[in-house]
Amino acid sequence: MPPIRTSRNRKPPPEGFDDIEDTLLEFANKMKDAENAPHEGKRKNESTWAIFQISHQRSRYIYDLYYDKEAINKDLYNWLLKNGYGDANLIAKWKKQGYEKLCCLRCIQAKENNFNATCICRVPKARLGKEQVVECVSCGCRGCASGD
Fold it and tell me: Is residue 11 part of a domain?
């Protein structure tokens, strides 16, 4: 049986968390608003698009801080991922070639899409035509192919 988390055995955030705490609180407030937003008149999948987009933005913020700007240290980065501030699996995909702009993990899972292939948002716009509007059913992405 896993140990029960209480305030006594929860580690305090590492050094540097105070600098990014305000931005993470903004993301948390946006997430609450998206969860409580009315979904009348929307399609079934469309009601979760805002949640996917905010989760993506928060994970991208943490990724950029650690890998691009090098503004946070490894301890803080690991603590943020462990405590659910970022999606570790999505960030792991962003590090691989061809997945730098991936919107969500559902778009690359073959079982989630028609014909056991990747999502339509992963197809480069040059192959589809410039006039065609592409919109992912699962997350609302309009194109996350690295070739765009």
Answer: no
pLDDT (0 to 100) of residue 2: 52
d(CA 20, CA 109): 32
Displacement of CA 59 from its chain's centroid (Å): 5
Report pLDDT digits (tens) over 21-40: 999 999 999 999 999 999 89
On the question of pLDDT at 95 being above 90, the answer is yes
Residues 75 and 109 in one domain: no
Q: Are residues 115 and 90 in the same domain?
A: no
Domain range holding 114?
101-148
The CA distance from 24 to 8, in Å, is 23
Domain assignment present for 55? yes
Q: Nearest to residue 47, comparing CAs of 56, 35, 39, 36?
A: 39
